[in-house]
Amino acid sequence: MLIGYARVFKSEVQDTVEQIDTLNAAGCEKIFNETSTGGRWDRPQLKQMFDELRPEDVVVVTALDRIASSLGDLFGILDKIDNCGAYFRSLKEGTDTSGDSGRKLMQMVQSIGNFERAKLRTRTAEGQEAARARGNGGGQPPKLSPAQQREILDMLNAGRSAADLARLFRVHRATISRLAAKAKRRDSVGLIDVR
Length: 195
Fold this sequence. Notes:
- This protein has 195 residues and is of the alpha/beta class.
- It contains seven helices and five strands.
- The protein has helices at residues 17-25, 44-52, 71-83, 99-133, 146-157, 162-169, 173-186, and strands spanning 2-7, 30-34, 58-61, 87-90, 95-96.
- It has a five-stranded mixed beta sheet, with helices on both faces.
- Strand 1, helix 1 (17-25) and strand 2 (30-34) form a beta-alpha-beta unit.
- Helix 5 crosses helix 7 (173-186).
- The N and C termini lie far apart (66 Å).
């Protein structure tokens, strides 16, 4: 069965009429029409199409950019189609994954996808390593400076409540409690009441 998929871009008027006409002319028996312009993964029609996809079906689009927002997105979608035992065809680019050349194309796409994922992991690890070398362990910067942290610990030891200090320093009470627990573990401060 030929199954069409049409989608609009955020910058376009919400209209897929031309795509639907082209997909009908290509022989599509069913067309999933994505008219919302949500994020990459917020596409209910694409999800429904995958739920209904059967082996030997062919997903047809007018152009590659109608089904994928990026190269990584395209690799993921083609992989899902392949895992369903179905095929993919893009009319504009002349891409067709059925037949021998199509299987070779899918193998090449999967290898490029694996390569891209490995490259991304490597770049992420290198970025984290460079950040650690600069003294930035990643994550959000601390809400309280070291001087503020010492002041809070002194005030806690003097009997002020964690809730009161949270209001005073404009942080969540849990931030004060974590600071107190960390200080307690280091044994640098005596018993602290974190009411």
